[in-house]
Amino acid sequence: MRQHVNPLSRIHQQPRPLPPPAQLFAQPSRPLHLDIGCARGRFLLALAPLQSGWNHLGLEIRRPLVAAAEADRIAAELSNLHFLYCNANVSLEAWLAALPQGLLQRVSIQFPDPWFKTKHHKRRVLQPALLRAIATALAPGSCLFLQSDVLAVITPMVAQCESCGWFERPAADGRPWRAANPLPLPTERELQVLAKGLPVYRVLYQRNGATVPPQAAPPPL
Ligand SMILES: C[S@@+](CC[C@H](N)C(=O)[O-])C[C@H]1O[C@@H](n2cnc3c(N)ncnc32)[C@H](O)[C@@H]1O
Fold first, then answer.
1. How far apart are CA 86 and CA 88, in angstroms?
2. In a domain, 149, yes or no
3. Is 3 within the bounds of a domain?
4. How many angstroms does the Cα of residue 48 sit away from the middle of ligand 1?
5. Whose CA is nearest to atom 5 of ligand 1?
6. Which of 62, 81, 125, 173 could link 48 by a cystine bridge, Cβ 3.0 to 4.6 Å?
């Protein structure tokens, strides 16, 4: 399987309608945790039974990983977990906009693909449009958790979150990086990084009460 797929390739630019929570979870009104770029899903497969009062949705652009994660979820009979194949930059915005107010209470983006070359930065997952869609859907007080082992990747993510005006960092959090993971389990990538004794850069944001203004309409042609 390919390690990285190009999210800007034509095949990944096709929007996919994502099913609403009522079609994904046994109890769709539970608080929702969205993990963007969940890979093989082992983190959520372990988290869902631990946090059974939540629904957990993993999104992943590599379709075979989603099929394998879904097979494990079905075998484990986890009705508060679902995995969906999509390009989060293409298909998530419409889905988030249709969510019932207050349902989305946590978003995590953990160890996103780095795309080191400057000309490839536009392939990185946290783009301004996605951040806007997340901020619009997250209720005040809800969390956005970001972590990476690559300083050059997380630094611009933090810059976006700090400059948009829609998020605050809890005062008690370490600066510039939060020492502990607020989630009770590490991801697969996190385990690999920690096993090598390498640093992990973490930030936990809370959605503040600022309104996300509607996007300006494009100028007439
Ligand atoms: C480095 S892996 C980290 C996986 C996992 N979060 C972890 O920490 O172990 C990043 C994942 O994000 C997925 N990904 C990258 N861009 C994406 C996009 N636009 N939409 C959905 N998934 C994406 C990749 O396919 C990959 O599986």
1. 6
2. yes
3. no
4. 19
5. 38
6. 81
Ligand 1 centroid to residue 3 C-alpha, Å: 10
Q: Whose CA is nearest to atom 7 of ligand 1?
A: 189
Q: How many angstroms does the Cα of residue 37 sit away from the middle of ligand 1?
A: 3
**CATH number where 24 lies:** 3.40.50.150
Q: In the chain, how many domains are there?
A: 1
Task: Give me the sheet containing 32-36, strands edge to edge.
Answer: 81-85, 55-60, 32-36, 104-110, 143-148, 201-207, 167-168
> Which residues, judged by CB distance below 6 Å to any ligand atom, belong to the binding site of ligand 1?
7, 37-39, 59-62, 87-89, 110-113, 125, 187-190
Domain-embedded: residue 214? no
Residues with Cβ within 8 Å of residue 169, at least 6 apart in sequence: 175, 203, 204, 205, 206
Kindly state whether residue 219 falls inside one of the protein's structural domains.
no
pTM confidence score = 0.96
Residue recorded with tokens 């988030």:
96
Nearest residue to 62 (alpha-carbon basis) of 86, 43, 45, 80: 86
The residue ranges of the chain whose pLDDT is under 50 are none
| pLDDT at residue 123, rounded to an integer | 97
Domain span at residue 180 reads: 15-114+124-207
What pLDDT sits at residue 1? 64
